Amino acid sequence: MGKLIEFQAVGRDITERKQTETIVQQQLAQIEAIYATAPVGLCFLDRERRYIQMNERLAEINGLPVSEHLGRTVREILPELADIQEPIFEQVFQTGQPILDVEVQGTTPAQPGVERYWLANYYPLTGVNEQPLGINITVLEITDRKQAEQERDRILAEAQSAREAAEQANRDKDEFVAVVAHELRSPINSVAGWMQLLRTRQFDQATINRAYDAIERGTQTQVQLIEDLLDYLVSLVARCD
After folding, report:
1. Engineered SS bond to 134: which of 4, 46, 62, 202, CB 3.0-4.6 Å?
2. What is the H or E stretch that residue 222 is in?
3. Which domains does the chain show, CATH number per domain?
């Protein structure tokens, strides 16, 4: 009877192991399918920051075949991005917590010298003791979106600059008109004042001569102001043309 129980226990152990292996194989197949079809870059790094698995999309983003990544570190493949990436890896390994929606900026061998942008997520893969065994990373290219945002910001900045320039031009115009009005009014007031006095009062010859001098100066000043104003208006029209 004891032998039968032992046989049943062994049979159950084998069955459970087979079921577990089947589940694992199914999960691995699902992972492989995701890696093959995902529109975003995917990879898995071990604790030494070496590429253990990655998909074709990430290889395209980096500009090197999958085979050249596997077994090599991020610093070996992407030295220009390593200084940005490695502190993030270290934080994930230290905390065991994911880091999401990190905007990464830099260049890769795919387009040397071309500044590109990606949105990356970092998920730790933990073992039975809850210690991170590696990091799963997703990478989404957002260069086109960032360039569109930058172009939009440039257009808005130019529009704001043009608006400020127009407002300043209006202020300058108002100030110019005020100054011209004051400068034109002053000699006119002087001439008009002396003319009124000469009509209504009797003066000695010295005062009359002084009045004539003041009227002559005022008239000459007026003529000069008008000529300067006409020159300014001509130059302004020429610039507008």
Report:
1. 46
2. helix 205-240
3. 38-141 (3.30.450.20), 149-240 (1.10.287.130)
